[in-house]
Amino acid sequence: MKRTQESLPAQRAHAVEAGRAIEGVSVGTLRAKYGSPLYIVSEAALRRNIRRFLSAFRSRYPETVVAYSYKTNYVSGICAILHQEGAWAEVVSGFELEHARALGVPGPQIVYNGPHKLVEYLLEAARQGVRVNADHQEELSHLEEVAKRLARPVKIGIRVNMKLTDTPWDKFGFNLESGQALEVCGRIHASKRLRLSGFHLHAGTRLADVEIYRAAIEGLLELASTVEREGLGEIEYLDLGGGFVSDNAAPSYDAYAEAICGPLNARREGLRRRPLLILEPGRAIVAAPVSLLVSVVAVKRTPEGRKLVVVDGGVNLLPAARRFRHDVLAGSRGAAHAENADVVGALCMQDDVLRRDVWLPPVRRGSILIVRHAGAYSISHSIQFIYPRPPVVLVRGKETYVLRRGERTEDLLRLDELPPHLATAPAVRGDGRSRRTASSPGARR
Ligand SMILES: Cc1ncc(COP(=O)(O)O)c(C=O)c1O
User: Fold this and answer.
1) For atom 5 of ligand 1, which residue has the closest CA?
2) What is the C-alpha separation between 227 and 221, in angstroms, rounded?
3) Where do the domains of the chain lie?
4) pLDDT digit string (tens) for 241-277?
């Protein structure tokens, strides 16, 4: 067996299912080679997305950089493609910081956010010139400690929040409207160990209203002008975070760029320099280029006659499916009439539903389904629950590459330890028979 996933006997019979392809490789070929379930990344789509995003902004404001939000999907191959395209890294933990460094991202091209940064990582970040955005007063104290240990001032940015939506993301940073943010700028200036050099604001996720971004950049520009006028710091960058929707039909990347770059070009005269515009998209870049391939395990009906299509991957692999309606397509383009169904996963949980109310052509055990837009907060949010997690495969034209191999039982058990009194004790079942004498095939699971 290629991997520890429960394999479908019927799979082989349908191994080369004619129909849909990712770039130049049919989904049937992908399954025959790598099994099911399977995350599939289109390299061309990923490169196209980041290029289009960057050019929408740079054509209006050349001093724009994208610091790709690692947590959205930090499979190394995905990050590496985006870095090849010029993206910086936005990280929110020591692990992500080490990940970006291991991929060769220079310190000054890393933006370090997040509300919990260990002092040791802050020290490392300061040594490497990483751009740290402080989230709270405690972190400012830690950064002062870091500056003391390095015996030099440390440049920092601060996270700012403001009321931009009905449910503002006010958990992060210092509030603008109440004057808290400006007050903190004054404190940083007074500290002598810290130098204020930027502002960061992330207003939420799936923000489809570009006016939110216009108001956000105007708020930060205003704050930056006040800070410079009062001699509290010199603002080198304004960072508007992520939140851009993945389906760029509405709003388009251009619409976002217009809303942000318009005020930047018009209102930056109060500042000493043209600030760098940093953007931290995650979903907008990686959602669409990744699909999740699953295979039908069974087709059944509820007592009310509703069709249920049971597949071999569920919300363990795509937790966002609980909240969002992902497109689900049949792997082969059936000419026959479609029927409405719910696609449910293989977890032992009633709410393991990948997609309700979807029209599908007739499918049977072994048929392939493709869940689209599966790249954002899927692999990084996936849980190892009941099943090992599947491989991630890159398609580049007609070539395919493994970006992450599927988990095996030994991977899952590698971190477990058995204390001596458990390692030596005979494993005894409830009926008093030792495991060695148990004949059930499930006894070793
Ligand atoms: C600070 C920060 N930047 C960027 C992002 C990426 O957001 P999105 O994937 O919505 O673009 C997030 C996500 O929550 C975030 O917290």
Assistant:
1) 242
2) 10
3) 9-42+290-409, 74-281
4) 999 998 656 899 999 999 999 999 997 667 889 999 9
Answer yes or no: CATH 3.60.20.10 is held by domain 9-42+290-409. Answer: no
Phi-psi region of 231 (alpha: psi -120 to 50; beta: other; left: phi over 0): left
Helix 43-58, helix 253-267: angle, nearest 10: 30
Architecture of domain 74-281: Alpha-Beta Barrel (3.20)
User: Using one digit for the tens of pLDDT, what is the confidence trace for 77-111?
Assistant: 999 999 999 999 999 999 999 999 999 999 999 99
Q: For 287-296, how does the pLDDT look when each residue is reduced to its tens digit (9 = 90+)? A: 999 999 999 9
Contact predicate 282/376, CB 8 Å: yes
The Å distance, Cα 342 to ligand 1 centre, comes to 30
Q: Which residue has the tokens 């960057």?
A: 54
Separation between Cα atoms, residue 28 and residue 252, nearest integer Å: 33
Question: Would you call the peptide bond into 37 cis, given omega within 30 degrees of 0 as the criterion?
Answer: yes
Residues 208-231: b if buried by 16+ CB within 10 A, e if exposed: eebebbbbbbbbbbebbbebbeee
Ligand 1 site, residue 69, Cβ cutoff 6 A: yes
Rounded to 10 deg, the angle between the 253-267 and 210-229 helix axes is 20
Domains 9-42+290-409 and 74-281 share a fold: no
Candidates 79, 77, 103, 85; CA nearest to 393 is 77
367 Cα: distance to centroid of ligand 1 (angstroms): 35
Query: How large is the C-alpha radius of gyration of the chain?
Result: 25
For a mutational test of ligand 1's pocket, the pick from 113, 158, 205, i.e. the residue with the most ligand atoms closer than 8 A to its C-beta, is 205
